[in-house]
Amino acid sequence: MADNDNGDMAQLYAADDPFLLWVLIAQTKDAILKARQRDYARFGISDDRRAILYIIMNNGGKATPVIIARNLFRELHSVTEMLKRMEKDGLVERRKGTGRSKVEVVITEQGRDVFEQSHRNETDQRVFSALTKQERERFSQYLWKLRSRVLQELGIPEWSLDLQNPNDRD
To answer: Whole-prediction pTM value?
Structure first.
């Protein structure tokens, strides 16, 4: 492929080719993450840590490691290690759990502050302003549809209110 021809990839595959769609999704996700990480660096937080804080905040300020791992599609031991580092940095506190869970993770005041500051970043607004409101709504519907299919393929049931399609909420 010639480096100067931006249409090379598109010429190799039809616009609806699943491989091209995967490449576009992967490249877009990676580029958005890179832009977001630049913003989050100002707050000393990674995208993974921010995702954990988001899950905890959306779960009423507390969550179990199992819920966090499930929402991040990560192994429990990986999440446990991240939570230990976040606790050391004062973002969360791990407490004795109630019910079936042995551990419950609670966001600290410092974690709330970092989350709120990082939540107000403008990167997402700038990136997604490339789409109209109607295009964003359609795009969201398409992503939810793909997500549901992948979960079905993996044999994973739909879960968790914090990842529920906002269009389905009352």
So the answer is: 0.76
